[in-house]
Amino acid sequence: MAELLEKISAVDRISNIFDANQTMVGEGLPAWVNQARTPALQAFQKMGIPSFRTENYKYSDLTRLFENENFRRSFKPDLFDVDLAEVFSCDVPEFDTHLILVANGWYDEKSTNSELFPKGVIIKSLRKAMLENADLVEAYYGKLAKSNEDPLTAINTIFAQDGVFIYIPDNVQITKPLQIINILRSEDDLFVTQRNMIIAGKNSQAKIMLCDHTLTSQQFINSNITEVKIGEDAVVDIYSIQNQHNKTASFSGIYVSQDKGSTLSTNAMTLHGGIIRNNLKISLDGEHASASISGLALTDKNQHVDNYTSIEHLKPNCVSNQLYKNILDDSSTGAFTGRIHVSPYATKTAAYQRNNNVLLTDAAKMNTKPQLVIDNDDVKCSHGATVGRINDEALFYLQARGINEKEARLMLMFAFAHEVLAEVKIDKLRDVIDELVNKRLRGEVSLCHSCALDCIR
Amino acid sequence: MLVIKDLYAKVEGKDILKGINLTVNAGEVHAIMGPNGSGKSTLANVLAGHTNFEVTHGTATFNGKDIFEMSADVRAKEGLFLSFQYPVEIPGVSMVNFLKTAVNEHRKYRNQKELSAGDFLKLMREKKEMVQIDSQLTNRSVNEGFSGGEKKKNEIFQMAMLEPTLAILDETDSGLDIDALRIVSNGVNMLKNKNNATILVTHYQRLLDYIVPDFVHVLYEGRIVKSAGKELAIELEEKGYDWIKKEVEG
Ligand SMILES: Nc1ncnc2c1ncn2[C@@H]1O[C@H](COP(=O)(O)OP(=O)(O)OP(=O)(O)O)[C@@H](O)[C@H]1O
Ligand SMILES: [Mg+2]
């Protein structure tokens, strides 16, 4: 009994960490950022650590993870002895991006060459933007990602200090993709908080890639929240590649609000990572807005990947289209929850959702659940989910043509995965991802950069 | 080339093949006929290496090698080809990628260099002409959305690409229109030479007008109950199977 009493709960520990470091966390940041922390803390204390009982976290119980962690926090930027830009210079020919580096949640000024960014576009550390572009940031900060609606958002808001800020003015089209590389690197186990904001002005265009990597083999917990505002008729693509080692727990939240006529495409590619939870919430808040969102997770060993999407159809004539696929090997587990809410005003809504999964072993498990809440009659809506295995007849067909079993299996898995990859609209990126997926399925280490460090275990 | 001795096989606990004996030599064409459910496709699948079927007794050698010691892909690379009665659709696997992989796996097995992209396309064009397959079909996923006849044509196209020494054509004629039947038969005849052999599984004499068999066998309840020359097919066309069933039972 005594032991139990002494054991401090994860909620208490996180609260204590905030109390003890409040000054350091808030240092140099405007009051409106710091004032959001206390209500976030209270919301978190009320909701607690996500567990099977928490709404929307039925398939991802994080109790054990949080009970057992007592990781260092990255309240100050860590000094790196390497030039990260050099480590990550992409050696894929003709795949040219604007590189933005973030190390342990901190925007890396040193490695990011802001002079090369297009005119009028603001790309800088969120921290700096909070001070220098307060009007822009304050308008959306905590408004799209709401602390009282999600415990992981609350944790992020309690500790948020830095991340990436991107602002694309009206009528500016950036052709070269913006590539944000998030690096985790530490000599001790580390808890990282990162907060980003993307604002795309009217009729603007941008393609944004988010690449998550680990450079050392320590344990990490990574909380990464991005708020995205997409203006009228703007076209934004967000591609994420999750490739962290399996001792990493990664919690990402992308919260989007779309104006009239805007177009969003997202694609979440999960290759490696221990416990992954991706929240994606999109509010279609203007007529004729469309969102096409997709994800592919290739898991093995004890990986757990949980994709949670929530699409809010608020205005008439909007379209949402979802395609998520998982291939699960060994004793890995996956979950997909797709919530679609069509409001009474959102007439002529079209909302489609599909989740297809392949289990390669008896031990692998997949939970899939559509959640449709439709409050008007004038909608086109469809959803479908399958959990299956490799088709034996197709496998035999390929073998009967001289293709060995291993190769035939790979062909079928790749074919299954490729439907999602086809959604990637940057040709070169699609080729790169194709290659990564191919290597991943073959069980080869899949590094998408010339990184010499062996970060995938 | 192929020697089958006293072969028994079962599927899901049920005996299907009950003592098959068959010898096929290079240069020969054999037709296998028989009522529905008699085990013709089972025999074809057992030879091709489908793992649903369990061989419980007997032997089969292909060019002197024990066929049951080889996995399905090795049998294919040794020169065995099965044209499926019901070719499966494989969404997402492109015809081109599939064929290129298959052709190159065969070449590697024979210690030949893999074909360059250009040479492969040339080969494909050539063979496409031979079986007069619609050019668009090779731009699609394997069999996906193909009509029944297109699927059968596609099987023969693959056969032309892989040039097997023993081809087992399981009801390739079913579902083909009159022109397609002629084209496919021509293709098979063009591929025929003194070093390879063909087993035709069919229900209809018509195919055998185009591809003339040296032997006709009747498979009934898992056994070959009658073998004769091509005149047997004509007799079957006229009289059906009842007289054979009576012979067997009587
Ligand atoms: N996978 C299977 N599971 C159960 N029974 C099977 C299976 N495959 C074949 N059979 C059975 O084996 C028997 C022989 O089937 P087979 O397909 O070999 O016949 P067939 O001679 O090719 O007939 P058809 O002329 O109709 O094509 C049938 O009774 C069939 O139902
Ligand atoms: Mg049959």
Can you give a write-up of this model?
The complex is a heterodimer of chains A (457) and B (250). Chain A is 24% helix and 37% strand. With 457 residues, chain A is α/β, with parallel strands linked by helices. Chain A has one domain. In chain A, strands 1, 4, 5, 7, 9, 11, 13, 15, 17 and 19 form a 10-stranded mixed beta sheet that branches. A 10-stranded mixed beta sheet of chain A has the order 3-2-6-8-10-12-14-16-18-20, with helices on one face. In chain A, a hairpin with a 2-residue loop joins strand 2 and strand 3. Chain A is globular. By secondary structure, chain B is an alpha/beta fold. Chain B has one domain: Rossmann fold. Chain B contains 9 helices and 12 strands. A 6-stranded mixed beta sheet of chain B has the order 6-9-10-3-11-12, with helices on both faces. In chain B, strands 2-1-4-5 form a 4-stranded antiparallel beta sheet. In chain B, helix 4 (117-131) crosses helix 5 and helix 5 packs parallel to helix 6 (178-191). The model of chain B has no long low-confidence stretch (mean pLDDT 95). Residues 40-41, 85, 170-171 of chain B line the site of magnesium ion.
What does the secondary structure layout of this molecule look like, with pairings?
The complex is a heterodimer of chains A (457) and B (250).
Chain A: H1 2-6, H2 10-26, H3 31-34, H4 37-47, H5 63-68, E1 72-73, H6 84-87, E2 98-103, E3 106-107, E4 122-125, H7 126-132, H8 134-140, H9 151-159, E5 164-168, E6 178-184, E7 190-200, E8 205-214, E9 220-230, E10 235-243, E11 248-258, E12 263-272, E13 275-284, E14 290-299, E15 304-313, E16 319-328, E17 333-342, E18 349-359, E19 365-374, E20 379-388, H10 392-399, H11 405-421, H12 427-441
Parallel strand pairs in A: 1-7, 2-6, 5-7, 6-8, 7-9, 8-10, 9-11, 10-12, 11-13, 12-14, 13-15, 14-16, 15-17, 16-18, 17-19, 18-20
Antiparallel strand pairs in A: 2-3, 4-5
Chain B: E1 2-11, E2 14-24, E3 29-33, H1 40-48, E4 53-62, E5 65-66, H2 72-77, E6 80-83, E7 90-94, H3 95-109, H4 117-131, E8 141-142, H5 148-162, E9 166-170, H6 178-191, E10 197-201, H7 205-210, E11 215-220, E12 223-228, H8 231-239, H9 242-249
Parallel strand pairs in B: 3-10, 3-11, 6-9, 9-10
Antiparallel strand pairs in B: 1-2, 1-4, 4-5, 7-8, 11-12
Helix pairs in contact in B: 4-5, 5-6
Bound molecules: adenosine-5'-triphosphate and magnesium ion (MG).
